[in-house]
Amino acid sequence: MKKQMELLYRLQTIDSNIKRSEALQRQFEEEVGRLQAELDAEVEKSTAVRQEVDALAKKHREHEAALKVLEDQKRKVQEKMMAIKTNKEYAAAQHEISSIEQAIGKKEEEIILAMDAVESTKALTASAEAAMQESRRRFDAKKQQAETQLRDYLDDIERQRQARENLLQEIKPDMLKTYQQLHKARNGVAVALADNEHCFGCSMKIPPQLYNEVVQGDHLHTCPHCRRILYVDRGAAEGQQPA
Ligand SMILES: [Zn+2]
């Protein structure tokens, strides 16, 4: 019986380790997924800012081209003025020039505004780029960590599963059935360590008589409070619990 109790306790330890490794694996996967989403958002933001700079630069070039057209127009009218004979034609040409000059003035203001817009948006590009790089660095680091550390966890789970399989062969069917029922009903902890007349599954006091019987280990005993199988591990340090 003592041997069977020890096997049950080893089974509990393995099951707890597997559960912990699986939780760590999920945690890693969630973290990598979260950082991936963060990186995607930063890439999107950075791309949007760059596209805005391109659009503003295009607008700036268009204004410059329009200014050149206006300046050409003005030059043509000035050339035409050389050949003008009448005052009426001269006045008309002067009127034309002043309206072109007005348009040129307006266009020059637009060019200054467009240049300012390009410059301020370019400044945003730098910070968006930096945020993206930082996000990528975090993602890469976590992914790298997940790949090495997680592989160790997965290897560990695999080893534990193998040991578990071997263990199951040695445990008596009725003992195993009790274990499995409790494992399911008691949140993955079927075997609780007992020490100093206390159950570590529920932290409650165990009657002295029962505790003595648990220490002797000749029968399977369960905690009167949480119903878990009680086990005294003489080799383990006080307070150690496979949960
Ligand atoms: Zn208990």
Please tell me about this protein's structure.
With 243 residues, this protein is mainly α. It folds into two domains: 10-170, Orthogonal Bundle (Helix Hairpins); 173-231, no CATH class. Helix content is 77%, strand content 4%. It has four helices and three strands. It has helices at 2-82, 87-170, 173-185, 208-216; strands at 191-195, 198-199, 229-231. The chain has a three-stranded mixed beta sheet. A hairpin with a 2-residue loop joins strand 1 (191-195) and strand 2. Helix 1 packs antiparallel against helix 2 (87-170). The protein is rod-shaped. The two termini are 23 Å apart. 14% of the residues are buried. The protein binds zinc ion. Zinc ion is lined by residues 192, 199, 201-202, 204, 223, 225-226, 228.
Q: Which key phrases capture this entry?
A:
single chain, 243 residues, mainly alpha, Helix Hairpins, 2 domains, disordered C terminus, binds zinc ion
What's the SSE pattern? HHHEEHE
Q: Work out the count of structural domains.
A: 2
The biggest sheet, with number of strands, parallel, antiparallel or mixed sense and barrel status, is:
3 strands, mixed
Share of residues in strands: under 5%
- List the total number of helices: 4
Radius of gyration: 40 Å
* Poorly predicted residue ranges: 237-243
What small molecules are bound in this structure? zinc ion
> What is the CATH topology assignment of the largest domain?
Helix Hairpins
Strand order of the largest sheet: 2-1-3
